[in-house]
Amino acid sequence: MDLISLNFKDRSLLFANLARIAYYNIDKAKSQAKKLGFSTIEFYDKKGAQAYRFMNKTDLVIACRGTEPTCWNDISADLKAIPVMSETISRVHKGFKEEVDELWPMVCEDINRKTNLKKNLWFCGHSLGGAMATIMASRAKFNDELNDPVELYTYGSPRVGWKKYVKSLEVKHHRWRNNNDIVTKVPLWIMGYRHHGTLHYITSDNKIGKPGFKDWCKGMWAGIKARKFDSIGDHDIIAYHTNISEAM
Which of 23, 207, 210, 248 gets the most CB atoms within 10 Å of its CB? Predict the structure, then answer.
């Protein structure tokens, strides 16, 4: 399976699947990833920061794990919204940067292996994992020894860095937002944080469209009728996969 040969919908669904698998333990992740055509699976785990490396003959994918409500390290990372100097240009979210700092030496060493440099490099992640994947993609892009990432796919990602940092990230980034996903609204715009990438917005009736007050109201009303908090339900990675499939 050559990921470049897939159409946009299939790639979006595949990376959403890998972002979901990134939450699994190693045994379950291996089982699920092999069904998708990946023969090599490695788990990175240091001080609560976690990611997977999925590889086949032509591709290397780094999928970062998002926030786990029972993991204090993840919650702590989300709360550290202080902007600090990045490893490349301008400022990024301190908590997200620290998560990447834990894993990057191991990830960088692996993607820099001679055999792996021949593969197409991709990054993906959901929630906190999307923020981590963005920072990793930026570091790979700025490292002349590494392949440039082909593309970055994020799902329900928070804002990662300041405007100058975002403008410096010359990586093709497909940023998926599911209707009223509350995580995509933080850290606050007033703090200087901006989003990166091409927005693909899923409307309240599962179509590709543009965000707006009317669609926000429709989504919230649908949540009230279903007796659920729409802004939280829209953040679920399974909802992303399901709604992308229906929307395209």
Answer: 23
Number of domains comprising the chain: 1
- Of 82, 177, 169, give the one whose Cα is nearest residue 130: 177
Q: Which one-letter amino acid corresponds to residue 205?
A: D
Ordered alpha helix ranges (H), the chain: 8-21, 26-35, 72-79, 94-111, 128-142, 163-168, 213-225, 230-233, 237-247
The span from the CA of 217 to the CA of 117, in Å, is 47
Decide if 165 contacts 139 (C-beta within 8 A): no
- Amino acid at position 153, single letter: Y
From residue 4, give the alpha-carbon distance in Å to each of 7, 24, 85, 122: 8, 26, 34, 10
CATH number at residue 242: 3.40.50.1820
Residue holding tokens 């040969």?
5
Q: Domain of residue 34: give its range.
A: 3-247
One pLDDT digit (tens) per residue for the chain, 248 residues:
799 999 999 999 999 999 999 999 999 999 999 999 999 999 999 988 999 999 999 999 999 999 754 544 544 555 677 889 898 889 999 999 999 999 999 999 999 999 999 999 999 999 999 999 999 999 999 999 999 999 999 999 999 999 999 999 999 999 999 998 989 999 989 999 999 999 999 998 889 988 877 776 776 656 555 555 556 888 999 999 999 999 98
